[in-house]
Prior knowledge:
The complex is a heterodimer of chains A (93) and B (1008). Chain A has a single domain (3-91), classed as Folate-binding fold, CATH 3.30.2270. In chain A, 10% of the residues lie in helices and 35% in strands. Chain A has one helix spanning 36-44; strands at residues 3-6, 10-13, 18-22, 52-58, 66-72, 78-83. In chain A, the strands form two sheets. A four-stranded antiparallel sheet of chain A has the order 3-4-5-6, with no helix packed on it. In chain A, strands 1-2 form a two-stranded antiparallel ribbon. Chain B has 23 helices and 49 strands. The interface between A and B is medium-sized, with 31 and 26 residues.
Amino acid sequence: xxxxxxxxxxxxxxxxxxxxxxxxxxxxxxxxxxxxxxxxxxxxxxxxxxxxxxxxxxxxxxxxxxxxxxxxxxxxxxxxxxxxxxxxxxxxx
Amino acid sequence: xxxxxxxxxxxxxxxxxxxxxxxxxxxxxxxxxxxxxxxxxxxxxxxxxxxxxxxxxxxxxxxxxxxxxxxxxxxxxxxxxxxxxxxxxxxxxxxxxxxxxxxxxxxxxxxxxxxxxxxxxxxxxxxxxxxxxxxxxxxxxxxxxxxxxxxxxxxxxxxxxxxxxxxxxxxxxxxxxxxxxxxxxxxxxxxxxxxxxxxxxxxxxxxxxxxxxxxxxxxxxxxxxxxxxxxxxxxxxxxxxxxxxxxxxxxxxxxxxxxxxxxxxxxxxxxxxxxxxxxxxxxxxxxxxxxxxxxxxxxxxxxxxxxxxxxxxxxxxxxxxxxxxxxxxxxxxxxxxxxxxxxxxxxxxxxxxxxxxxxxxxxxxxxxxxxxxxxxxxxxxxxxxxxxxxxxxxxxxxxxxxxxxxxxxxxxxxxxxxxxxxxxxxxxxxxxxxxxxxxxxxxxxxxxxxxxxxxxxxxxxxxxxxxxxxxxxxxxxxxxxxxxxxxxxxxxxxxxxxxxxxxxxxxxxxxxxxxxxxxxxxxxxxxxxxxxxxxxxxxxxxxxxxxxxxxxxxxxxxxxxxxxxxxxxxxxxxxxxxxxxxxxxxxxxxxxxxxxxxxxxxxxxxxxxxxxxxxxxxxxxxxxxxxxxxxxxxxxxxxxxxxxxxxxxxxxxxxxxxxxxxxxxxxxxxxxxxxxxxxxxxxxxxxxxxxxxxxxxxxxxxxxxxxxxxxxxxxxxxxxxxxxxxxxxxxxxxxxxxxxxxxxxxxxxxxxxxxxxxxxxxxxxxxxxxxxxxxxxxxxxxxxxxxxxxxxxxxxxxxxxxxxxxxxxxxxxxxxxxxxxxxxxxxxxxxxxxxxxxxxxxxxxxxxxxxxxxxxxxxxxxxxxxxxxxxxxxxxxxxxxxxxxxxxxxxxxxxxxxxxxxxxxxxxxxxxxxxxxxxxxxxxxxxxxxxxxxxxxxxxxxxxxxxxxxxxxxxxxxxxxxxxxxxxxxxxxxxxxxxxxxxxxxxxxxxxxxxxxxxxxxxxxxxx
Lengths: 93, 1008
């Protein structure tokens, strides 16, 4: 069981988190302008990397925040986490 | 049995780990025995001799106790009876308690008379792969043969029996964190724990035995000129006194996982048997997160194979030493020890000291001179260059033959007969790499020590020490333990300094090299008779491995699956390495080149009860009850589970049948007024300036024009365009909305909103807060609903003008702030009244007192199905679009939303997809089966053309008969057709395809 470093709460057991798949899959700004193949690529296809993989997790049974984490899909080594922009915790009165 | 005649007398200075003042009576296979406190079941039985106590898996040969620990392949017992019973326990690890009752697990019909022994005599027809070839192979009728023989084979091959009644015991789970987890309490483990503790670490030491000490428990080792067990006791005292050290005895570390997470099973009440003190759990499952791990798991001795090496009275050499030294049991009068390494000399010396005649057959031409001399001085006969080549006797060892052994395992010259009734065999040591393997650390082959050793562990935060690294001397184990403990403390960030203890072991000279020996074989024609076993638990012989090689099952994974080598409850702890070394010899490869299979958790089996812990029965899953639950329970409610919620399915009055109750409830709503507890619906408060933008992107329909005080129904889809939830969202203020979701999807929808808000649209200023349990909800529906709600103590104007359909009003109801939505899932005029949860029951009671009939989920289903309203998860299954269910009106053409682009994908845009339709059975008495497949021709030969399935089906009192909703291929173009719905028990019901609205098609009733 991984010990995941939530950027908001610190190290916690993997069972507190939910997996959100590959990170940086941006939703197309103009879906109607895409071909069927391009849209299918966004909806259905993911990198499925062997090795280092940037993915997103959410601390479901914790702070509820989403963040990104790089994990090696072969060794399970994991490291750098990143936060999403916008509504930062500090900004919440 | 003729008494414990093989227990050494009390004056012999051995067996200090048993308490001769505390005799314990126990029962095995129906006979009564006596052992002592401190015994294991195995040691207590061996005091009566090395008699057969099991039958082997395939050939049903008599088998005796083979080892003194976790690696035991033979002596599997069923402990106790009834709910307390546990199958497949290793007698070598069962601590004796008064009144213990156990039986052999594989001895059908009995250990002494075994009709399956025929398998042994018929063994030429039962080679490796027999089952696959005969029953699973591609030959004609193979499957039928399997069907015929399976029950017989299963009974013949079965291990223990699962208890047939619920487990009465309690199990616990414990979470722990530490700087250093030390696995194993032998010399290396104790040494590591000691230094780590002295450097300020929080330490957990887990040892699987009743007392730490490992190999030193045999009692023949010396540290600093004193018995090694004195050092063990002093070290344990020191650890117990240290503040942050937990010593877990009887605790098997069963699995190692990522980031140094370990699971361990601690035997607590288990060792007292069924009479254990009530406050003790039977077992405790530890979940330990360690910064660093010291792996000091030791090593398992391995045998070498020779004909009839499975005869009771043959066992591992170190097991002979442990039974003698620890328990004062030597189950023989004259002992033969076969070895290819130094370890047998300790055993020989100990037995000689007890006055037992010993012969050592050392495969090495020149054993270390000092050892040989010392042994012969003690009266031991040493036969250099000899190996055991046969065992005589059937149910007991009656003698043995030794032969001159050549380096390739061939024998030369005539064998020599040795008078013996107890044979100890050592072919070297296999480090216990299981936990390293759990961490995916591939072991490497050490040629000079002829064993696999762990590799690549330190990068994982694991440090190996002691016999698990291949270390053979006590001095090395102590030294490695010290180094591992010191390094682990440093890596865990503990910088406190402490002095290195100056320990002097009795063997600092180190061992002489091993001479690898895997099997004593003769390949000459008419060669040696009798089977030579590699894997005792699975009856895999040297010949089976050779056969696998001949048939080209040469990969270690194929070898395992073809011969079953290394399977079963022991997972080949004493067999694997020998098996793959023999495969290497057959195929001209080193054992390292053959490689090992991967060990997986658990190290030894863990009862399911320990894994489940308290998560069983009422505590298995939380039960969620609404504020009105007690009223429902007291008023005839039959509950159904919706997720974790208990929802009333229907309320039975008097002796009324369930069907009658549902009919009555439906009529009450259609003709008068009904009230339903809708508190379980998901409720999400949405606040912020950008809520409307969020709703526009999440829902398929348009939300820009929703005014304060109005509500709207919406559909949510995934990006693939398929429906995943629906519900009503109301606007309570300029920047305040409340969204309702289906009961089962409340958490999913909340997470869905959060995901989009946080990862994709962080610029949207919206807070989404679950308020599901903050409100109790009563849905009041029916032509008399307005009259009823108008009588409530409330400041709300309930008239159709002030409070029209799809209006959302906040006001006071019974003195508390309420949110009321005029929405309808029944087709009748209907108000959903939300009040703070603590007032839910009072509101409910007032509505009942006002004359409302309570109705449950089934009446609700009938009412909504009559109107053709879908239920997500019933009419939809993740492959259904809004257009498929005829809700294209709820899909905006002007704006983008999640899933929109997918409606232009060719398959999603097809006009002949499955559509939601209504079905009316031609026979009005029939209620079609939900899930029933729809066909046009029930007589069609397979493969039958399936057109869809029934999604909802009920009896309707309003329609006076059965009706259904269905997903039907091209259904909107089949209106008026007759289709057939297949029944489970054969046959089919004809039904007419109709529009999926059966009642009040123009919706006039909505306005009350």
